[in-house]
Amino acid sequence: MKKFVFIISALAMYCFVSFSAFGAEKKILKIGTGSKQGVYSTIAAPIIKKNLAGTNLTLEIVPGGSKINLDKLKKKEIELAIVQFDALLQANADIATIGFLHDEYAHLVVSKKSKINEFSDLNKSHTVAVGPLNAGSRITWNNFISLDKKYKDVATLPLRNTRAITALESGEADAYFCVTGLRDKYLMEASKKKAFTLVEIDAWAFNNLKYKKRKVYEFFKIDDDVYPGLMPSKLTTAVKSIKLSAVVVCLGEWADEHEEEFETLAAAVSNALPLIKQKTEND
């Protein structure tokens, strides 16, 4: 009888432990990203999510954009967000940085027939596709205007990706400005057409902007093996651009209240970084 009771007790304990392990659900954190097809949604967030395997956390990817993400953070509709570093200048909230990700690059693309040879050639006679109002590229464009007022009279269109390239091809737009990781799928498609040119971003005023003592923009050269078909000539080995970081952020209040989760996320971001860079940067 004692043996029977022992066996029943042991089975009950086993079932309890098994049920508890099976029933333990991961905590889902919503992370705001960019467009559904963009680098944040298709590369950065999924790799971070994979690096949370084995922890009690997982991610639900919520497409959006840098400004949209910051607004959702403040409304507590999401817990985390991937945004362009320069978007934090307009955050108007206590933001905690979980980790810095890959670099992103400003691109200015024109028709090969265009007389726009560098960013500083833009003037009020030109129309530039700069993306939707809440998107990261538009944020950077607005920051550029704040740094150099000469560009405030340049007309803009809220177009990006294929629609922007089509507008450029048809003459509706004189240039397409975007901020994205290297080898962006839409720019790669444009490169294949060999009808467009990537021009230099040469305005030194953009080099002076800082957020919490950290420089926001840095000059950088995009090598010719990234977009061979977008080089100004066969002799061009690189085109000058500006780079900035993508960052994973949360509200400072959330970080204070979820210290353990914050540390887990910071470790996952750090572990994810090499693969994210491998897939997005100038190598």
What labels describe this entry?
283 residues; alpha/beta; ten-stranded mixed β-sheet; 8 helices; 12 strands; TRAP_TAXI
How would you describe this structure to a colleague?
This protein has 283 residues and is α/β, with parallel strands linked by helices. It has helices at 2-23, 39-50, 66-75, 136-147, 161-170, 185-193, 252-257, 259-280, and strands at residues 27-32, 57-62, 80-84, 95-111, 127-129, 155-157, 175-180, 196-198, 210-211, 214-215, 218-223, 238-251. α2 (39-50) crosses α8. The protein starts with a helix and ends with a helix.
Describe how the helices and strands are arranged.
Blueprint: H1 2-23, E1 27-32, H2 39-50, E2 57-62, H3 66-75, E3 80-84, E4 95-111, E5 127-129, H4 136-147, E6 155-157, H5 161-170, E7 175-180, H6 185-193, E8 196-198, E9 210-211, E10 214-215, E11 218-223, E12 238-251, H7 252-257, H8 259-280
Parallel strand pairs: 1-2, 1-3, 5-6, 5-7
Antiparallel strand pairs: 3-12, 4-7, 4-8, 4-12, 9-10, 11-12
Keywords: Receptor, Signal
Protein name: TRAP transporter, receptor protein
InterPro entries: TRAP_TAXI (IPR011852)
Structural class: alpha/beta
Assembly status: single chain
Which parts are unreliable, with pLDDT below 50 for 5 consecutive residues or more? 14-23
SSE string: HEHEHEEEHEHEHEEEEEHH
> Can you give the helix content as a percent range?
25-40%
**Approximately how much beta-strand content do the residues carry?**
25-35%
- What is the gyration radius calculated from CA atoms? 23 Å
Number of strands: 12
User: What's the average pLDDT?
Assistant: 89
Total of helices: 8
Q: What is the molecular shape?
A: globular
> Span between N and C termini?
72 Å
Major beta sheet, specifics? 10 strands, mixed
Keywords: Receptor, Signal
Protein name: TRAP transporter, receptor protein
InterPro entries: TRAP_TAXI
Signal peptide: 1-23
